[in-house]
Amino acid sequence: MNISPDNTIFVVLSFEGPDAYSMAGGLGARITYLTQTLGTMGFEVHHFFIGDPHLDGIEAREKGKLILHRWCQWIRLKGIKAQFEYNKPDCISKDKICVYLQKKGGRCGKN
Hints:
The protein is an alpha/beta fold. 31% of the residues lie in helices and 20% in strands.
């Protein structure tokens, strides 16, 4: 099976992302470049991360192919160090992401 924009959706879960608040380490830049590149290549990409509390919770970029999901924005109100103080917050979990994707008509895992 070949991977193409017609048969593949990427879902990325990272504590870091493209927001200034989410660039605490080098991973934020790397994951941002990865998701942007996949979006420009025509792949649908959902990037879940702890985002800036002053920006929209959901934002579309790359002609609608890259969907940013700013979850757990309340953590950012506590400051940049908060992302390291919380060990897997309840607002981000595989189950919640799967439910979200299924509501949008997508699949999660091998089902």
